[in-house]
Automatic annotation (TrEMBL):
It is an enzyme of class 1 (oxidoreductase). It is found in: Membrane. Gene3D superfamilies: 1.10.287.90. Its main location: membrane. Keywords: Membrane, Oxidoreductase, Transmembrane, Transmembrane helix. GO terms for molecular function: oxidoreductase activity. The chain crosses the membrane at residues 6-23, 35-59, 79-97. GO terms for cellular component: membrane. It comes from the Bacteria. This is Cytochrome o ubiquinol oxidase subunit 2. The lineage of its organism: Bacteria, Pseudomonadati, Pseudomonadota, Betaproteobacteria, Burkholderiales. Its EC number is 1.10.3.-.
Length: 117
């Protein structure tokens, strides 16, 4: 209950915002919007677990927790710790590279002849 008033005040102040990203017009604008949303979602795959695990590790390995055991051998998790973000970066780079060339402003638009009128 103590968080409800600030939360309500913060959310009500966003009522007048104009989210230009989500009000895209035209084919190129819609494709750019979809690209930004996709890239944000892919980045959250790495960011959200990292933030959550920060709190988990801080609670688990705090100084007052004498039951926690610190294992020095973490070689088995190196593939996960470095592999998932690396795959994410490669995926993002591939998607952005392809879409950058598709959305090149100097490239002619793909318009059917009957849509020119």
């Amino acid at each position: 209950m103590p968080f409800s008033l600030p939360l309500f005040a913060g959310l009500s102040s966003l009522g007048g915002c104009n989210w230009v990203l989500f009000n895209s017009k035209g084919s190129v604008g819609l494709q750019e919007r979809d690209l930004i949303i996709l890239c944000t979602g892919l980045m959250l795959i790495v960011v959200l677990p990292a933030i959550a695990l920060t709190f988990v590790f801080a609670g688990q390995y705090r100084a007052s927790n004498h039951k926690a055991t610190y294992l020095l051998e973490w070689a088995h998790s190196e593939a996960v710790v470095w592999g998932i973000p690396l795959l994410n970066v490669v995926t993002l780079a591939t998607i952005v590279w392809k879409s950058t060339h598709e959305l090149d402003p100097y490239r002619p638009l793909d318009v059917c002849p009957d849509q020119n009128a």
